[in-house]
Design a protein that fits this description.
Strand order of the largest sheet: 1-2
Distance between the termini: 70 Å
Number of strands: 4
Largest sheet: 2 strands, antiparallel
Shape: globular
Number of helices: 11
Radius of gyration: 20 Å
Bound molecules: protoporphyrin IX containing FE, magnesium ion
Structural class: mainly alpha
Length: about 260
């Protein structure tokens, strides 16, 4: 009897171990000393262990493997993003970055974020519910390029009118468009350019992949070409909604040149 009970416990423990070894299920938030940054997706990948859980010393290999395993990015797009990422490491010619480096204002981090306040108002790296509530008030149950662009323009207008130091570089603008293209593509359908709003809310608010809402790692590889194509689709809708010439003079043209 005792042996049988022991064996059944051992079998149960093994089953638990099997499911626990799945990184999509292995989530925990940062521990003391770990760092996170302004990118909800990279924070999420660190929380699942797809990137170093410390959020520190992320190398090209770490990024390539992590983005492939988490969301099926090809190696070229990871290399492309890595070059941007290491530009935020204050140490010149570094071969790694940490997630908190990304917070350096106006290197990559920009004003008018979807879920963070402007650096002028406080912590541009930490999720901010009020900012995100404004963003998601522009999304329908399904987020697409139209409502994604509407949210971007609304956040720009709010930030411009409340932040006396508001600025947005051309690179910042290209990032804004790319970020919306990326979350739609990775959490939803990269061809139809639609995503369920609940999945996006879940990731931003929990910094966790929305597997419990039915999300799965995309089967199709995500490439720089797909990112550029989808960025341009967001940019077209974004340009339609700009009614200030200051905003209008930057936009899709620049985004296209940058990504060439
Ligand atoms: C935000 C960098 C990968 C989606 C950001 C920000 C940075 C950044 C610096 C802050 C911009 C700001 O809002 O001020 C990076 C780098 C990446 C990377 C260096 C890869 C090495 C990804 C991936 C996705 C993604 C793979 C999606 C699939 C987003 C989104 C935001 C963002 C949606 C906007 C957050 C907001 O506006 O509140 N990223 N990111 N990023 N990133 Fe990433
Ligand atoms: Mg920002």
């Amino acid at each position: 009897m005792r042996l049988a009970a022991f064996l059944s416990l051992a079998v149960a423990a093994a089953a638990v171990n099997v499911s626990n070894s799945d990184p999509f299920e292995q989530w925990h938030g940062p521990k003391a000393g770990d760092v996170r940054g302004p990118c909800p997706f990279l924070n999420t990948f660190a929380n699942h262990g797809f990137l170093p859980r410390t959020g520190k010393y992320i190398t090209l290999d770490d990024l390539t493997n992590g983005l492939f395993n988490a969301v099926n990015f090809d190696a070229n797009i990871s290399a492309f993003l890595f070059d941007f990422a290491i530009s935020t490491n204050p140490e010149p010619n570094s071969t790694w970055f940490s997630l908190d480096h990304l917070t350096r204002h106006n290197v990559l981090e920009h004003d008018a974020s979807l879920s963070r306040v402007d650096a002028f108002h406080g912590h541009a790296d930490i999720f901010n519910q009020e900012a995100f509530d404004e963003t998601r008030s522009h999304w329908g149950d399904i987020v697409n390029v139209e409502s994604g662009a509407a949210a971007i323009v609304a956040r720009m207008k709010t930030c411009k009118s409340t932040n006396p130091q508001y600025s947005l570089s051309q690179l910042g603008e290209a990032f804004i468009l790319g970020e919306t293209a990326a979350f739609i593509s990775i959490l939803g359908d990269a061809e139809a350019l639609t995503v369920e709003k609940t999945r996006v809310e879940y990731l931003f608010q929990n910094e966790r992949l929305p597997t419990e809402l039915g999300w799965k790692r995309p089967e199709a590889q995500f490439t720089t070409d797909i990112l550029v194509r989808n960025l341009q689709a967001v940019a077209v809708e974004y340009q339609k909604r700009l009614n200030s010439t200051v905003l209008r003079k930057r936009g899709v043209d620049y985004a296209e040149r940058l990504m060439d």
